[in-house]
Amino acid sequence: MKNNHIAVLDIGKTNKKILIYSSKLQLLDEQITQIPEIESNGIICDDVEALKIWILDTLRVLASTFRIGVIATTAHGATYALLDGQMQHVMPQIAYTHDPGDSLHTSFYKFCGTPHELQKVTATPNFNLLINPAKSIFYARQQYPEAFQKARHLVFYAQFFGCWLTGKVCTDPTYAGNHTYLWDFEKGDWSAVADRLGIRHLLPKNMCNPWDSLGQIKPEIADVTGLSPESIVIAGIHDSNASMLPYLLMMKEPFLLNSTGTWCVIMTEKERVYFNPDELGKVVFYNLNAFRKPVKTAIFLGGLEFEYYSDILKKMHQRSDFPVFDESVYQ
To answer: Is the dihedral of CA 155, 19, 231, 46 positive or negative?
Structure first.
C-alpha cells in the first residue's frame, strides 16, 4: 500500500517531538521528550547522540502503525554541526546557551568587524551567549583546533537531521539568514564574516528550498526503523519560519506574527532590509523566510521566563499542575 503519512521531526530547544500527519495534514500522533544538555570539558553541549537514539526508537514504533513516506524537519536556530567526510561530528555540538565569557565577544568583533557594521550587512544584532552562530564557530576554532581542521561540512540544525538520514548536504535560506552573521543580505551570498572565519568551503554550495527533497533515507536507517527504503526526507526549515509559512500562504494583507516557545519571536515580512538609526545596536534584525524574503524580527525569552516563574509559583503553592483557566482572573 502506498506510503501516505508524513513524520515531522520538531526539534525545539526544550521539547523534541515527532508528529505524524495524514496526507490531508490531519494530526494523527505525537511523541514528545526532553533531552537535557550535557557538559564536555566545561562546555555546554547538545546531546545529539541521545536525540538520534530517541528519534530512531520512536520512528521504529511509529512505523509499525503508520505508512510513513515523508520525513520533514523543523528545528531551533543558532545551532550547527561540523561534520567530517563520513558525515560524523568532528567535535561536540556546542549549545547556544553556553557562556564563553565577555572576552570572546570582544575578540570576535575585533576580528570580524564592529557590531553596527555587521548588523547593517548581515542584518544580525549582537547577542550574548552563543546565539550568533558565527561567534560559536569562532569559539570552536579556539577550543577544538585539531578537530576543526578535520571538518568537511558545516550544516545548520534542520539540515543536519536530513544529512544524517540521507547522507546529502544542503542548507536553506531560513537558517542561513537567521542571525548568523554569515549571510550578506544585499549580495544574497555568504558574508565576509564566513571568509574571515575561513569556513566558506565548509558551507553547502546548494541553497535548497525548505520543501525540496534530499532523497531517500539510507538503507541502514530503513533497516533500524522499519521505514520503507523509499521514504524521502525534506530539506527542512527553521522553526520560527515554519510557524510563519502557513500565514504567508493564506494571508494577502500584511501581518505580524508572534511565534511562542522558549523564545517569543515577533516577525513581519518586508520588501527590503532597512534599519532606522535608533534600531542599530538593539535586538532588531532580519530573517529570511521560506521564499527568501526579509522578515523584520524581534525576540525575547518569553517561554523561558514563563517556565522560570511557573516553577517558583508551583513550589510556593506546593503543586505540580497549572490552575484551571479563570476568565475573571484573566480579565
So the answer is: positive
| Section 302-323 average pLDDT | 91
Q: Where are the beta strands (DSSP E) in 101-191?
A: 153-156, 183-184, 189-190
SS3 state at 283: coil
Q: If we measure between CA atoms, which residue out of 6, 12, 1 comes closest to residue 26? A: 6
Q: What is the DSSP string of 204-230?
A: -S-B--TT-EEEEPPHHHHHHH---TT
Cell numbers given for 17: 517531538
Close Cβ partners of 269 (under 8 Å, ≥ 6 residues apart):
248, 254, 289, 293, 294, 295, 296
CB within 8 Å of 112: residues ≥ 6 apart:
118, 134, 138, 181, 192, 193, 196, 197
Helix (H) or strand (E) holding 92: none
Cell reading at 33: 521528550
- H/E stretch holding 100 reads none
What are the tens digits of pLDDT across the range 139-157?
999 999 999 999 999 999 9
- Residue-wise pLDDT for 162-211, tens only, equals 999 999 999 999 999 999 999 999 999 999 999 999 999 999 988 999 99
Average pLDDT over residues 127-136: 96
Give Cβ neighbours of residue 250 (< 8 Å, ≥ 6 apart): none
Q: Say what the alpha-carbon torsion angle 252, 253, 254, 257 is, to the nearest 10 degrees.
A: -80
Nearest to 125 by CA among 176, 75, 180: 180
**Percent of the chain with pLDDT strictly greater than 90:** 91
Sequence-ordered list of residues with C-beta below 8 angstroms from that of 22, at least 6 positions apart, any chain: 4, 5, 6, 28
Q: Tell me the HSE value of 23 on the side-chain side, using a 13 A CA sphere.
A: 6
pTM, full prediction: 0.90
What whole-number distance in Å separates Cα of residue 106 and Cα of residue 108?
5
Phi/psi at 131 (5° precision): -75, -15
